Amino acid sequence: MDRPRVIGVYLAAGKSTRMGTNKLELPLGGEMLGSRAFQAALDSNIDFMLAVTTQSGPQHWLAPFSKKTGWKQVICENAEKGQSESLKTGVREAVVIGAKAVVILLADQPLIDHSVLNLLIEEFQKSDGLSIVSAAVGGMCKPPVLFPQHFFPALLKLEGDEGGRQLLRNAEDVRKIAFPSFYFRDADTFEDYHDLLRGRELKTVGKSVIRKEALEKVTGQSRYTNDIQFTGLLHVNMVTSPFGHAKITRIHTADAARMAGVRAIVTGGSYPLIGEAIRDRPRLQPERSVIMVNRLFL
Fold first, then answer.
1. What ranges in the chain are assigned the alpha helix state H?
2. How far, in Å, CA of 118 to CA of 123, rounded?
3. Under the phi-then-psi rule, with left for phi > 0, alpha for psi from -120 to 50, and beta for the rest, what region is 202?
4. Distances in whole angstroms, Cα of residue 89 to Cα of each of 12, 78, 85, 110, 157
5. CA-CA distance, 220 to 211, in Å (whole number)?
6. Is the pTM of this model over 0.70?
7. DSSP string spanning 163-183?
8. What is the pLDDT of residues 175-223, one digit of tens each?
C-alpha cells in the first residue's frame, strides 16, 4: 500500500523586521540562507514542497530551484497578520493537492537536514498516520513538525503569531524525536546570523562536528553495498597465492569449473592486453592472480 502523501509547507513570508533586510537572502556557506533548508526538504522523502512567500519583490533565494520540480511558490496575501496566515495559506494549498499530512518548516532554520525530515515521516508512518510528530530538544518541541490530515481544520483556525504551538500544547498524542540543538539554530537577529557564520567558518576547530550521515547511520537508514541486491547478481571471489612473493607457473581451473554454481573463471590470460598508446598492460597480472565468479575455490 502506498504511504500517505506528505506535503512540506515552508514558511518564508516573514518581514525580517528585527534585521531590517530580507534575511533569507543573506549568504551562508556559499548559498543564501533561505535556500538551505528548502534544498534539504527537496532532498528528503517529502512528496511535494510549498514555499509560502509574500508578493513584495522577487524571491532571489528561490532562484536556484527555478528549474527543479517537486515544489511551487504560494503567495500569502495577509502575511502581516502573523505567521498563522502563512501556515493557513500553505495548508489550504496542501489540501488542494491531496495532502494526508503536512510538515511545517521555518525558512530561517538553515541547518535542518533531510535526515531530520525523513525520521519525522518514518515515525508518522509507524503511528498509522494518526499522531503529530515533532522534532524536540530537551523534551521541548521544535519545528519542523508533522501534522496529520485530521488536524487540518484546527490549523486553519489559528490566528496571529501562535502558529502550531497551541495545537502541540493541547494535543494528546504528540510523538517527539530528540535531535541535537545544532539543527535548530535560527537567524532572528544579526547576532544569530553572525553566530551561524562563525559556525560555518570554524567547522572543525573547537567544534563538536556532526557528520552529515550520522543520523542515517545510527538509525539504520544508511544503505551499504551489501544491502543492494539485483536479480541474477553474481558474486566474485578472489583466489590468491598463499605466498607473499612467488611466481605462479600454472593455474589449474578444471576442478573449479566442475563445481556447482560456477558461472565463469577469470584469470590474467582471459583478456587481451590494454593500454592508452601501446597495449602492453594486462587487466590482471597473468602470473599473480585468479578470480572465480560465484564460488570460492581454494
1. 33-43, 83-96, 114-126, 152-155, 165-170, 190-201, 214-218, 254-257
2. 9
3. beta
4. 12, 9, 6, 22, 12
5. 15
6. no
7. TTHHHHHH-S-EEEEE--GGG
8. 999 998 888 888 878 888 888 887 654 445 455 666 777 888 888 888 8
